[in-house]
Design a protein that fits this description.
This protein is of the alpha/beta class. The chain has a single domain, classed as Aldolase class I (TIM Barrel, Alpha-Beta Barrel), CATH 3.20.20. The chain contains 14 helices and ten strands. The protein is globular, with a radius of gyration of 19 Å. Bound molecules: 2-O-methyl-1,6-di-O-phosphono-D-mannitol (5MM). The site of 2-O-methyl-1,6-di-O-phosphono-D-mannitol has 16 residues, from helix 12.
């Protein structure tokens, strides 16, 4: 049965479920594999991702969709089954990263803009035929003294909106991901200020580009202290300030917000999501679209060794379950430790 764009967007943020971001580009997955001293080849990348996608408890229970990289959407499992079939058989939706990565932004030292609009309609058509139901484009905004600049915020918001319009025209739901990085030494209030600005620009550009808000999923950062901040805000403050900024900027027509983890610890990412969902009724669904915070434990448990496949799958299932509970506002530290 063909799903409408609205139905796909709703399914991506279905209660208690969220998205697995497994769209690391070749350079990023190599860095991840380096950290466990595993070689990064087409086969090892396939084995690792096959392990995740065959974690039936996680996929059936808590993963609504998986963001894939170009290589992965075309890959077959060891037994010849397309990886996309393993995902759909588990009741999850395959998605695809379509941005071309970040490039230095002209006359804006230290800032980047995401590229990849050239030829995008044709690529969307091909990915649609390969089974992708949704796509992802990540814009990156850094905070440091004197940045972000208006030029950077505007250029990235405009590209995100053009991408979203191209996806919808091609029959694919766009995940709109404006990421304000948490790498700096800034405090949580500076993150709140920049996140509010970025989201206002993004929704203005989505409107100008005639994007139907009911057909998208927003993937923002949480409002959080920079990693190098001398004083880090509490989990409660992160939840409270993130909700405050989202309520100011995200129209209720958007079906759901699926956060990125951005370098938070596994438990922080889960706890923050839980606190927001436990805070009371919200106009949109709030869930996860985590990469590192869903995969770090599984990657370590697997460590590139086939004999660790069951342990890796178990670690992934645990994080998926914890985040599924957080998406329903039902997570607790006790469950984290005992489950
Ligand atoms: C999985 O990581 C994604 C890929 O990034 P590269 O293009 O740099 O390889 C990344 O876009 C990811 O989907 C989001 O940042 C969310 O991941 P985190 O780890 O921040 O939750």
């Amino acid at each position: 049965m063909t799903m409408t764009l609205e139905q796909v967007a709703q399914a991506m943020v279905a209660p208690g479920r969220g998205i697995l971001a497994a769209d690391e580009s070749s350079g990023t997955i190599k860095k991840r594999f380096d950290s466990i001293k595993a070689e990064s080849t087409a086969d090892t990348r396939r084995d690792y991702r096959e392990m995740l996608f065959r974690s039936t408890d996680a996929m059936k229970g808590h993963i609504s969709g998986v963001i894939l990289y170009d290589e992965t959407i075309r890959q077959k499992a060891k037994d010849g089954t397309p990886l996309t079939k393993i995902i759909t058989d588990a009741g999850s939706l395959p998605g695809i990263k379509v941005d071309g990565g970040t490039k230095p932004l002209q006359f804006s030292p230290g800032e980047v803009v995401t590229e990849g609009l050239d030829g995008l309609p044709a690529r969307i058509k091909e990915y649609h035929a390969l089974g992708a139901k949704f796509a992802k484009w990540r814009a990156v905004i850094d905070i440091a003294p004197g940045i972000p600049s208006y030029t950077c915020v505007k250029a990235n918001a405009h590209a995100l909106a053009r991408y979203a319009a191209i996806c919808l025209e091609g029959g694919i739901v766009p995940i709109v991901e404006p990421e304000v990085l948490m790498d700096g030494a800034h405090d949580i209030d500076r993150c709140a200020e920049v996140t509010e600005w970025v989201l206002r620009e993004v929704f203005q550009e989505l409107y100008i580009n005639r994007v139907t808000l009911e057909q998208i999923v927003l993937k923002p950062n949480m409002v959080i202290s920079g990693q190098k901040a001398p004083k880090r805000a509490s989990r409660e403050e992160v939840a409270e300030k993130t909700l405050k900024i989202l309520k100011r900027t995200v129209p209720a027509a958007v079906p759901g917000i699926a956060f990125l983890s951005g370098g938070q610890s596994d438990e922080d990412a889960t706890a923050h999501l839980h606190l927001m969902n436990a805070a009371g009724a919200l106009p949109w669904k709030l869930t996860f679209s985590y990469g590192r915070a869903l995969q770090a434990a599984a990657l370590k448990a697997w460590s590139g060794k086939p004999e660790n496949t069951a342990a890796g799958a178990k670690a992934f299932s645990h994080r998926a379950k914890m985040n599924g509970l957080a998406a329903a506002g039902k997570w607790s530290l006790a469950l984290e430790k005992t489950a």
